[in-house]
Design goal:
two-stranded parallel sheet; alpha/beta; globular; nine-stranded mixed β-sheet
């Protein structure tokens, strides 16, 4: 809720563009299938679970490392869709054997891979750098390889922070993208795809919950920089387009693909803060002060949704674009990522930083 308003009613005020809706009742990529959602208890993962459940999958496997988050989404599905066959699995995607066994035991057809560490400033210290690689890179490699082994379709949920990344979070998600597409190119499969989008309003890592808490406490509201912008979308919109992306990939079978959500124009964070203050019935700068705190490690003033060479083209789904991607030397890229993974397992921070920088810079040089 935003100052007592229904959040759906408040969204048009926060996102000054037409909201995205979906006419069809079912997502064909998950209907009648055995679907695994990783990170199922997170903001994106839980919405993926709920929207997938609405398309009547044969089985819904919800996997998360957080027992509490998993319990909550399992309870929500039990109450909202009591007839849905489901299984709640405590799972660490870093554990290759556990990932493979889960997919094998439940004969998974479709994987929606949302599990990730994503809080930008938190991941910048040396300890959490390793944790980010282990979850975002090793975890994605495990899930991708297990999906390939089963012949399952997999969609990797990625982020605009993977475009010219500065942060550990962005670099690890960029490497996750590169792993899935280089693996797909190397073995010649159309089962692996990716979808990339920006910030999601109301997610656990977004500024909106923080601003709302600060407003409730009487301020100040802290904004990193007066010129900072971000692409914004509601959770419902983003997840609907992720599933639409899975549908497109399922229908086309045209090799590994990258879909990018058209999120409209970027939103100034300070404007978002002012709107939330006014929705609370307060006056910005008078009742609630706004303070500028400065850029934190890994943060950028502005994000981009795509690289220049990705040559985005519209699809049959409004606000969903397909990017042109290629991997000229997939084996060489896989070898570099193996070097990164080996360094992360050895907890060699210096080599991990070197490997992340080398992989992401060479990806730019070769326009991967």
């Amino acid at each position: 809720m935003l100052a007592g308003l229904n959040e759906d009613l408040a969204l048009p005020l926060l996102l000054p563009r037409p909201q995205i809706s979906r006419d069809g009742p079912f997502y064909e990529s998950v209907r009648g299938k055995r679907v695994l959602v990783t990170g199922a208890g997170g903001s994106i993962g839980s919405e993926l679970v709920l929207q997938a459940a609405g398309s009547r999958p044969d089985l819904l496997v919800m996997a998360d490392i957080s027992e509490l988050n998993l319990y909550e989404i399992d309870s929500t599905v039990r109450q909202g869709a009591p007839d849905q066959k489901k299984h709640a699995a405590i799972l660490d995607v870093r554990d290759r054997v556990a990932v493979e066994k889960l997919m094998h035991d439940f004969e998974v057809d479709v994987v929606l891979h949302a599990a990730a560490l994503k809080h930008v400033p938190l991941l910048e210290n040396d300890h959490n750098l390793i944790e980010a690689v282990m979850t975002n890179v090793v975890g994605t490699a495990n899930v991708s390889l297990a999906a390939v082994g089963r012949g399952a379709d997999m969609v990797l949920v990625s982020t605009d922070k993977a475009v010219y990344p500065l942060s550990t979070m962005g670099k690890t998600k960029r490497v996750a993208e590169l792993f899935t597409r280089s693996l797909a190119a190397h073995i010649g499969t159309s089962h692996l795809s990716q979808v990339r989008f920006g910030n999601v309003i109301g997610s656990s890592g977004s500024v909106v919950p923080l601003f709302r808490r600060q407003i409730a406490q009487g301020g100040p509201v802290t904004v990193t920089h007066r010129e900072m912008t971000r692409y914004m979308m509601s959770i419902r919109e983003a997840v609907g387009l992720v599933l639409s992306s899975a549908d497109l990939q399922h229908r086309s079978g045209e090799g590994y693909g990258l879909h990018i959500l058209d999120m409209g124009g970027p939103v100034k964070i300070v404007d978002l803060a002012r709107q939330l203050i006014m929705l609370a019935g307060r006056t910005p700068g008078v009742d609630i002060k706004i303070e500028y705190t400065g850029l934190r490690p890994g943060e950028k003033l502005h994000e981009m949704l795509a690289y220049e060479w990705e040559n985005m083209k519209p699809t049959e789904v409004p606000r969903l674009r397909k990017a042109a991607i290629s991997i000229g030397r997939p084996k060489a890229l896989l070898d570099m990522i193996a070097w990164l993974i080996q360094a992360a397992r050895a907890r060699n921070t210096e080599v991990v930083r070197e490997a992340l920088d080398k992989i992401t810079s060479e990806a730019v040089a070769f326009k991967w």
